């Protein structure tokens, strides 16, 4: 088995698409609409055929409550791994991202946290090299 898709709830799909492509640097993978439903995914340009991230609209009470609760707890909705968390921090910050935690050494890794402007916290993680 493989993980092909995972989802994150967003409060505005157009705003999310701009953030995830223009600020984070992901590539639009799928963008299909049928009536009020929009299937929108992005993927890493490093692995264009790898795992996709669905930017799912939080237009139901359960999704909205879940998204708000984890945000208020300071829990990331998504974690992205990187080989250069400090470089990515500088690049993404220069594109206007709001970081809630700069690169910080923790046990076994360096992490940074940012707000995706769509209701989520994102954690960037660089594993320590031993």
TrEMBL record:
This is VOC domain-containing protein. Gene3D superfamilies: 2,3-Dihydroxybiphenyl 1,2-Dioxygenase, domain 1. It comes from Dictyobacter kobayashii. Residues 2-127 form the VOC domain. It comes from the Bacteria. PROSITE patterns: VOC. Pfam families: Glyoxalase.
């Amino acid at each position: 088995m493989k993980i092909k898709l995972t989802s994150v709830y967003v409060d505005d799909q157009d705003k999310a698409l701009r953030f995830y492509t223009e600020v984070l640097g992901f590539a639009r993978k799928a963008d299909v609409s049928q009536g009020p439903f929009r299937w929108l995914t992005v993927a890493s340009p490093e692995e264009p055929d790898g795992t996709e991230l669905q930017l799912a609209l939080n237009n139901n009470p359960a999704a909205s409550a879940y998204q708000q609760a984890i945000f208020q707890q300071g829990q990331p909705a998504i974690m992205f791994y990187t080989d250069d968390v400090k470089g990515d921090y500088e690049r993404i910050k220069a594109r206007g991202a709001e970081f809630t935690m700069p690169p910080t050494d923790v046990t076994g890794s360096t992490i940074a946290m940012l707000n995706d402007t769509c209701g989520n916290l994102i954690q960037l993680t660089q594993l320590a090299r031993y």
